[in-house]
């Protein structure tokens, strides 16, 4: 019997490749595959910066984080845009990322049963006039909903309501508050509902011991299945691939040798090793599989990990004039990532949301005020022609 631990679960969604039948399809497939490859490489770099713990469940959505950060790119100018693209998708230009993202999204959504939902939104400070090119990038490449906002409690509620709806009520908020300097909020949300191709019989589910790496045990509901399942093993792990109905998505579960850290196993992977593992899998007739039922949420502040991945300047001072000619210098204030998953006999329900908040550096973080309690200059002007009638300085109001 094969026992699979939740701690060693790697949620890697791999879609089966489809052979292109036309030149346009071939070009679209190539661009979407290039973005998919960059997301997979980004996934393992991010995992190594986040780190994993042998006593904490881990769940990230590389697709969600990468998509949200990609939406930032057209708002950046010059070297700042270049440093984001280099960190996010080395070797790809903005146009390639945008075309590939649109093609990949179409590919992910154009499957039978539509188990995956993807939504993007952009919230721009209402007093800013958006650059038409920036707005077009968001709408055409990411199908983003565009909203105007002011940084107050009402806007926070509206953003969180959007997140709650788009994640099918699995994640009810991503933002706690907005500081007065926030001028742009970009949000990606995804929701996945997959039913197993080979479903587990609830009658076979029973409590069994789950052996933690620490040596402690916990009694948890274990699901049981015997079916033709793709399987592979090597010196460091055993793996299975559980297909979802429709055959477009699957869950790959990897079990390290006893006493080995599943988090370390996950961090040791890369796109090539995962591809090799999948290539070595073959169906085993009536393979006995035992998997625990589980449900958990996870969340991260990604400013630190993304800074370590080459984006540090974007969190300090960057040229965001691509967003609006009124914007200028700004900085990414926060990148919040939240996830949810539930696995049972029927299948998998999962969701993820990534929120990126960009602030202006032109104002102080506290509410603005003007206190003339030191020497000041002044002008008296004609408003319509801006003719200066008087100009002066006050050094001592008592004189």
Shape: elongated
Q: Helical stretch count?
A: 9
- The number of domains is 1
Distance between the ends: 94 Å
What's the story with the biggest beta sheet?
Answer: 7 strands, mixed
Measured as a percent range, the helix fraction is: 25-40%
Observed structural traits:
single chain, 399 residues, alpha+beta, Antithrombin, Chain I, domain 2, six-stranded mixed beta sheet, 15 strands, 29% helix, 33% strand, elongated
Please tell me about this protein's structure:
With 399 residues, this protein is an alpha+beta fold. It has a single domain, classed as Antithrombin, subunit I, domain 2 (Antithrombin, Chain I, domain 2), CATH 3.30.497.10. 29% of the residues lie in helices and 33% in strands. It contains nine helices and 15 strands. It has helices at 23-50, 62-72, 79-88, 94-109, 132-142, 153-166, 262-268, 271-279, 303-311, and strands spanning 2-3, 116-125, 145-149, 182-195, 206-211, 217-233, 237-243, 250-256, 282-292, 294-301, 318-319, 329-343, 347-360, 376-382, 387-394. The strands form three sheets. Strands 2, 3, 4, 10, 11, 12 and 13 form a seven-stranded mixed beta sheet that branches. A hairpin with a 6-residue loop joins strand 7 and strand 8 (250-256). The longest helix is centred in the N-terminal third of the chain and has 28 residues, at 23-50. The radius of gyration is 25 Å and the shape is elongated. The protein starts with a strand and ends in a 5-residue tail after the last strand.
């Amino acid at each position: 019997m094969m026992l699979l631990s939740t701690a060693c679960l790697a949620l890697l969604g791999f879609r089966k490749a489809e052979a292109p039948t036309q030149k346009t399809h071939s070009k679209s497939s190539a661009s979407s595959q290039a973005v998919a490859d960059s997301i997979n490489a980004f996934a393992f770099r991010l995992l190594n910066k986040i780190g994993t713990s042998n006593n904490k469940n881990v769940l990230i959505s590389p697709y969600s984080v990468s998509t949200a950060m990609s939406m930032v790119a057209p708002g950046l100018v010059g070297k700042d845009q270049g440093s984001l693209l280099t960190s996010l998708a080395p070797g790809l230009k903005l146009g390639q990322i945008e075309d590939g993202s649109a093609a990949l999204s179409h590919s992910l959504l154009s499957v039978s049963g539509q188990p995956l939902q993807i939504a993007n939104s952009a919230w721009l400070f209402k007093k800013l006039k958006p650059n038409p090119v920036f707005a077009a990038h968001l709408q055409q490449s990411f199908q983003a909903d565009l909203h105007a906002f002011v940084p107050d409690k009402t806007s926070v509620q509206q953003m969180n309501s959007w997140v709650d709806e788009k994640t099918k009520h699995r994640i009810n908020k991503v933002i706690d508050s907005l500081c007065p300097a926030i001028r742009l909020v970009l949000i990606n949300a995804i929701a996945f509902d997959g039913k197993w191709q080979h479903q587990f019989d609830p009658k076979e589910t029973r409590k069994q011991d789950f052996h933690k790496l620490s040596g402690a045990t916990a009694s948890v509901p274990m699901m049981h299945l015997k079916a033709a399942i793709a399987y592979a093993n090597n010196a460091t792990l055993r793996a299975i691939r559980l297909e979802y109905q429709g055959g477009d998505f699957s869950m790959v579960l990897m079990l390290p040798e006893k006493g080995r850290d599943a988090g370390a196993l996950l961090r040791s992977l890369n796109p090539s090793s995962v591809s090799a593992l999948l290539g070595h899998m073959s169906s085993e007739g009536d393979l006995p599989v035992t998997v625990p039922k589980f449900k958990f949420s996870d969340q991260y502040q990604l400013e630190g990990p993304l800074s370590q991945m080459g984006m540090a300047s974007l969190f300090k001072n960057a040229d965001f004039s691509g967003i609006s000619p009124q914007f200028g210098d700004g900085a990414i204030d926060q990148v919040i990532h939240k996830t949810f998953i539930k696995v049972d006999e029927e299948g998998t329900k999962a969701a993820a949301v990534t929120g990126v908040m960009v602030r202006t550096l032109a104002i102080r973080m506290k509410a603005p005020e003007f206190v003339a309690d030191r020497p000041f200059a002044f002008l008296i002007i004609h408003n319509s022609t801006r003719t200066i009638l008087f100009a002066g300085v006050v050094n001592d109001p008592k004189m």
